[in-house]
Structure formats: C-alpha cells, structure tokens
C-alpha cells in the first residue's frame, strides 16, 4: 500500500489484509482522515466516508477487528468545520454517511471492543472542549464567506425573549455534546444486546459509570439539560434486564452447578435492575444541576393564591421530568423511604456538633461554625472510599421528591420536620460555598421547597420547638449558608423567594439563636445587601405580633411551650401587615440587653466609616429606618446616642433628610 493513503486503492488493499494487520489499517485510516480534513471543501470528506462505508459493509470481519478504535477515529469528523452550528443536521452532507458508518460498527463490530471504546469516549465528552474548539475555529475563519455566514447566523438567531424563554440559538457545547452522546448511546445499546455472557451486569456497570461521568462533567455547561435527560431516560427505558443467552447457559464455561447457575442468573437480573435504578436517579440528580427547581415557585404562588408566571424553558422540561419520575416508579423506587434515608444520613454528619452552651468563647463558636460548613464535603470524600456503586444517587432522590409535587400536585412528605430540611440543606448546599463545581441548583431549590412545606404544615410552636433541639451552631451555619446563597442568586424571583423564606425561618427559630445570628451578620457579613436585609427583618421581628396563643415565653429563658398552636397557611399576609395588640408578644422581644448590643453596633458602624465612599455607608443609611419605628420602645438615652452619632455624618444628605423627619 502507498504511504500517503490518498487513493481508494490504498483503502481497498488495506481492508483486504485488515484481519491480519488491523493496526496498519487503523493507522492508514487515521492518516486518510487527516488528509481529507485538510481539503478546502467537504466533498473530499464525503467521498472518503462513502468509500469507507462501502468497505465496512463489505468486510464485516475487518470491521470487527478494528472496532476497538474505529469509533474514536470517526469522531474526528465531528468538528466545527464540518458541522455548521445553525443548520439542520439532515442538511449537512457529511452527517448521513458518518452516521451510517457508526451504525455498521454497532452491528458488525466486536461488541466488547465497541463497548470499551464507547465508554472511553463517554469520559472524554466535554462541552468546555467543544466550546473552546469552536471559538478557536471561528477566530481562524477570516474569509469573506465565513464573515457572510456569520452575519446570516446573527440575523436568524436574534430573539426578543426574556431569560425564561427558549433560546433560538444553539450553543457549540449543546450541538456537539448532543451529537456525540447520541452516537455513543446507540453504540453501547447495540453492544450490550450483542454481548453473550453469564455476567451481563459487569458490562452494564461499566457503561453506567461511564455515562454518569459524562453527565456529571457536562450537565452544568449545557444550555438545554434535556439533551442529557432524554438520553439517560431512553437508555434506562429501553434496556431490559435479561438472563444470559441459552447458549451461554448450556456451555457453562464456569462449570457451575444447577443451583449455582440459577442463583447467578437471579443475582444478575437484580444487579442489572439496581444499576438502572442508580442511573435513573443520577440522570435526574446530576442532569438538572444547572436549572432552578420550580416546585418552590409553584408552591409559593399557590399559597399566595396567584397565578404562577410562565416560564417556557421550564415548561419544556416538565415533560422529561415527568417521564423520569414515571421511570423511577417503574423501578419500584420508594421516594419517601429513600428521602427519609437521606435525612438520616445528613443527621449523622452534624450529630456531633455541640450546643452553644457547651462552647465557652465566641471565637471557638465561630471556628466550629466554619468547620460545620466544611463537614459535608469531608463526609462526601469519605464516602468515595467506600463501594457505593449500587446505591441510588441521593441528589436524584431529593430532586425526584420535588418533581413528585410538580407531577402529582401533592406533597410527598408533608410531615417533614423543619430541622430535617435544615440538615439536608447544609449537607447538599454547603459544598457550593467552597467550589462552584459543587453547586446543584435543582437540589437546592427542592430543599427550599421542603422548607416551605414544613413552615406551612406545622404550627409556630411546633416549628420553634423543633429547632430548639438543633445545635445553635448548626443553625447559625445554616442561616449563613442560606443568606450567602440568596445574595449570590442570579434569578430575581429565586432571590426574592429565598429572602422571604429566610425571614420565615428566622421567625421560627429560638430568639437567642436568631438574634445572635443577625447581630453577627450585621457586624461581619461581606455583602451589604445581606446586612441591610437582616436589619429590616430584625425591625419587623421586634414590631410584629405573634399569632395569638402561639407561644408562651419568658424573656430570659425563652422556653417554648407546646400547647395552643395556630397554623399559618396563608403566606400572602406579610409580617408588616400584622398589628401589635396590647400585651401581645412579638417574634422577638426588645430587651434592654438587646438595645445595648444594637446601639453599640450602630455607633461602632458609624465610627468605622473611613470616608464618604465607604461601601458600608449603604448599610448605615438604613439605621434611621430601623430605629425610628422602634422609638417608643427604645430606651430614650440610647436612642439619642444613636441619633447624635448619625448627625455627625453631615456629608450624607440621605441620612440627614431621614433624621430631619424625626423633628
């Protein structure tokens, strides 16, 4: 054969001896692919693929011996130069012969070699790489035709939709990852059906773990998560756990007895079912990580008796979500039982955290609180050392539990304690504070939905009694985590819901814990938005009356008595709309000790202002709004001390205008 491999004679000769020398054939194919890709037009590649397709069909034995690397070589055609970003795939000439080549490999290739090659390629699929490759190619394309094409694409792709509409443009990551996943899923599906073995779970397990890696690696980078969700659903739905073929059983190379053979077959069927259950939950848990969970939004608007705003992007996801939910049910996954197991696991992580009373110094409490936020990640690293290959994906269980509400319009676990949701939130969400790679918006939104259900399904006294038994350090870490996530939230709707939920939770928490957290946040929180928000919450807690008969407390002990309870199911009535009756308790009592602490905090904050442009001035500007409504309850001397300190800020017109209204 000729070394340049440019003519059809070279391929014909190579295939004629391919069975005896598959390595040389693959080397020639690789060189031929590189040469055809170097041409100025796609006609040379189309001609090459047609010729290759014919040879693969005519030489099935050769196809079998080169199937261990042929899919890898064929993937090299899937580059931006050959596949236009905004064209229908059927209109791209190279796609049809390329897909037919993959089909021949799936039918005629050695199934074990094909499966191994496909699993390796699964792990290499990367939306990041595809995007970078496209950007590099686009920058290198400086011809007039490329510039004209770019203008046409821009004209066709413009959209006036908002951030919840379906984008008309297709990203390079979505296109190439979606195309490659389609090919690889077809390859592994065909290979698994053709492998004759006594242990099919061995090959299914290898496939499942390769798919999971591809999902985890790419789910947060795709604009359309349904690309992954539909592939995972189709694979699980179409794969049927089967016993080994009759010829394998009759051969019985392992020399098993009749009982051993029967036991092996039963075990294999069960292992395959467990692997499919795991992949189903992994597809949901990891495939939705970049999308906000809508159960929280749906439930909130239902409580407010308002129509939920339309979000076409999420409406399109409902169909595939409901299919995955039905698939989980077909696998007999008991979502409630599995969710309870998740809660029990999360409690183990934080069970050893001491109560506040057991830690003497404030510095020690702060140090422990920081460590609490790292416990989840440490626990996950420990779990990785154990064999968890057959366990269900816990993120998937949490996500499916909220999808239950979207599909069934009822709560899966309405009796869930608020403390359970707190532990879940810390366990699943706190790792995102350490690295964005750990972020899972779907699971985070699902747990916030659990919290909404809990605060509306339990009375005020039940909620406070429940949280009374949770370590104050754990609660402080939880509140800080929730506040940080709310401040970092990009969606205005999710951010608003998060702040509203945080307000309700602070009102449901023992006073000492809530007050300590708020004061600590006002002193040291990095985002002024968070400080300003909590200052307003604290003012409302001082002013807002508790529902009649909800609590019986003493200022010093703050003991919660579980007797008369009143449900608060209507969230549409805001805290500020409640009036304080004579002798009524408020969500937080304004004691002299608390007045002293807050007075010192406000005075120190003003003293700490270094210059007029200090970012903290946006926080200080809200002091008059905070203390003015409380003037009748505040100690006069302490009140005047704060006002006098604020009047020293003569350069800040906003503050002075607010103070002038007091006179």
UniProtKB/TrEMBL annotation:
Transmembrane segments: none annotated. One of its GO terms (biological process) is protein-containing complex assembly. Pfam families: Kinetochor_Ybp2. One of its GO terms (molecular function) is protein-disulfide reductase activity. One of its GO terms (cellular component) is cytoplasm. This is Uncharacterized protein.
């Amino acid at each position: 054969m000729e070394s340049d491999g440019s003519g059809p004679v070279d391929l014909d000769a190579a295939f004629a001896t391919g069975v005896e020398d598959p390595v040389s054939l693959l080397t020639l194919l690789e060189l031929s692919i590189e040469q055809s890709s170097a041409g100025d037009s796609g006609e040379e590649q189309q001609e090459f693929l047609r010729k290759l397709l014919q040879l693969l069909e005519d030489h099935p034995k050769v196809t079998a011996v080169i199937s261990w690397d042929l899919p890898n070589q064929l993937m090299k055609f899937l580059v931006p130069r050959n596949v236009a970003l905004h064209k229908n795939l059927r209109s791209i000439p190279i796609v049809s012969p390329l897909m037919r080549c993959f089909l021949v490999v799936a039918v005629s290739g050695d199934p074990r070699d094909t499966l191994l090659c496909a699993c390796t390629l699964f792990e290499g699929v990367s939306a990041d790489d595809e995007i970078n490759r496209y950007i590099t190619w686009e920058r290198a394309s400086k011809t007039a035709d490329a510039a004209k094409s770019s203008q046409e694409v821009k004209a066709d792709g413009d959209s006036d939709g908002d951030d919840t509409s379906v984008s008309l443009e297709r990203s390079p990551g979505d296109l190439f990852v979606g195309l490659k996943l389609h090919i690889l899923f077809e390859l592994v599906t065909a290979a698994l059906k053709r492998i004759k073995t006594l242990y099919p779970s061995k090959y299914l397990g290898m496939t499942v773990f390769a798919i999971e890696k591809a999902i985890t690696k790419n789910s947060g980078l795709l604009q359309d998560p349904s690309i992954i969700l539909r592939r995972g659903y189709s694979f699980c739905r179409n794969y049927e756990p089967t016993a080994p073929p009759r010829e394998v059983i009759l051969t019985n190379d392992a020399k098993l007895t009749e009982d051993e053979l029967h036991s092996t077959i039963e075990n294999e069927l069960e292992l395959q079912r467990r692997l499919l259950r795991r992949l189903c939950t992994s597809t949901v848990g990891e495939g939705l990580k970049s999308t906000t969970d809508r159960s929280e939004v749906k439930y909130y608007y239902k409580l407010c008796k308002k129509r939920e705003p339309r979000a076409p992007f999420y409406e399109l996801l409902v169909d595939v979500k409901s299919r995955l939910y039905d698939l989980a049910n077909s696998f007999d996954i008991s979502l409630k039982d599995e969710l309870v197991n998740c809660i029990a696991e999360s409690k183990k992580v934080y069970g050893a955290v001491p109560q506040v009373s057991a830690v003497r110094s404030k510095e020690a409490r702060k140090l422990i609180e920081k460590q609490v936020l790292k416990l989840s990640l440490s626990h996950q690293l420990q779990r990785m050392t154990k064999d968890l290959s057959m366990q269900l994906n816990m993120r998937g269980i949490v996500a499916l539990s909220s999808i239950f509400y979207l599909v069934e319009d009822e709560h899966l676990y309405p009796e869930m304690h608020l403390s359970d949701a707190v532990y879940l939130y810390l366990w699943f969400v706190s790792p995102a504070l350490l690295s964005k790679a750990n972020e899972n918006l779907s699971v985070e939104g699902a747990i916030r939905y659990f919290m909404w259900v809990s605060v509306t399904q339990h009375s005020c006294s039940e909620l406070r009694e429940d949280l009374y038994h949770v370590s104050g350090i754990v609660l402080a870490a939880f509140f800080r985590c929730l506040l940080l996530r709310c401040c970092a939230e990009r969606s205005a709707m999710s951010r608003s819901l998060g702040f509203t939920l945080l307000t309700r939770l602070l009102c449901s928490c023992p006073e000492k814990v809530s007050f300590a957290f708020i004061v600590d946040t006002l002193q040291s929180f990095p985002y002024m938005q968070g400080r300003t928000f909590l200052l307003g919450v604290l003012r409302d807690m001082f002013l807002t009356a508790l529902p009649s008969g909800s609590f019986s407390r003493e200022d010093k002990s703050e003991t919660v008595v579980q007797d008369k309870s009143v449900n608060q199911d209507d969230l549409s009535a805001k805290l500020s709309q409640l009036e304080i009756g004579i002798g009524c308790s408020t969500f937080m009592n304004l004691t002299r000790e608390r007045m002293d602490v807050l007075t010192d905090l406000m005075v120190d904050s003003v003293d700490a202002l270094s210059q007029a442009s200090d970012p903290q001035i946006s926080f200080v500007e809200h002091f008059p709004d905070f203390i003015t409504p409380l003037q009748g309850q505040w100690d006069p001397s302490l009140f005047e001390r704060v006002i006098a300190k604020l009047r020293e800020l003569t350069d800040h017109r906003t503050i002075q205008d607010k103070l002038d209204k007091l006179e």
